[in-house]
Design a protein that fits this description.
10 helices
């Protein structure tokens, strides 16, 4: 199965050359990291957080995470944990075979990893319906393809985002990677506060950011609930924190926080974005 792009031409450019220029703009823009990195081979990164709005809004923030991944060096497999915006599919839906297409080419699913992951749990279903129109994993792929073509990934949507589910998924990722001897990086796809004035978004989001920086997934979840923060991917972030700690990460570096208002100038109703790296 080849999963066709759902949001090419909407969230990012559909023409390959235009998309490459757009990605380069994300890196070089004032809100981006400032330059296009060289690919390294250190391999210390265990996971990242990256936003998933249209590139003109959140691409420059996402570029901070992908700059660090590029400088660190590519793993064999990326696990993309993302929210389920469409309501399609099951509570936790993965794809375990086939490829995803973007304007920059095809990316293969790591079937061996996905099959073993699913085999050892009852909470993850094989369900492509959840992924057909979901944008939050798709928009991550062109950033990776810009640097390298020969990598694999596994997309997992989370409609169920409670702490028990998130930590079970994080633990499964760690155990599966260990069993296969697979070098992986977990990507948590999320935006933070939605459609609030910028000053409110910043006040709310610092509660989440401080918990993420402390690598405390339970505190983060509690703060999302306590402060009524409209963060769409709190489950993916909790799962990523848990997985990366299991994989040996001891530090979280907050790379960039910005909002759509920082791009458009309209700060009356913004969506907020975060880049963070776990090592």
């Amino acid at each position: 199965m080849i999963r066709k792009p759902a949001v090419a031409g909407l969230f990012y450019e559909i023409d390959p050359n235009s998309l490459i220029k757009q990605i380069e703009w994300c890196f070089q823009s004032p809100l981006g990291p400032g330059s296009i990195p060289e690919i390294g081979n250190k391999r210390n990164i265990k996971g990242v957080i990256a936003p998933h709005a249209g590139y003109i809004y959140s691409g420059s923030v996402a570029a901070h995470s992908y700059s660090e991944i590029a400088k660190d060096g590519f793993p064999e497999t990326f696990i993309i944990l993302c929210p389920n915006h469409t309501g399609m599919g099951s509570g936790i839906s993965a794809m375990n075979q086939g490829s995803w297409e973007t304007p920059l080419g095809l990316v293969d699913i790591d079937s061996e990893f996905a099959d073993l992951l699913i085999e050892n749990t009852t909470i993850i279903d094989v369900n492509s319906d959840a992924h057909i129109k979901e944008h939050s994993a798709e928009v991550q792929l062109p950033f990776l393809q810009y640097f390298k073509q020969d990598f694999q990934f596994i997309p997992i949507t989370m409609w169920m985002q409670n702490i028990e589910t998130a930590t079970e998924i994080g633990d499964l990722i760690h155990k599966t990677a260990n069993k296969l001897g697979r070098d992986v990086v977990v990507i948590a796809s999320t935006d933070l506060t939605h459609y609030q004035p910028q000053y409110i978004a910043e006040k709310q989001d610092i509660q989440v950011i401080n918990a993420i920086k402390a690598m405390d997934e339970k505190l983060m979840m509690n703060n999302v609930k306590q402060f009524n923060i409209s963060m769409c991917g709190y489950g993916p972030v909790a799962g990523t924190i848990f997985a990366t700690k299991k994989m040996g990460a001891t530090n979280c570096q907050i790379e960039k926080y910005a909002t759509s208002g920082d791009t458009t100038g309209d700060k009356n109703s913004v969506v907020a974005y975060l880049s963070a790296v776990f090592r």
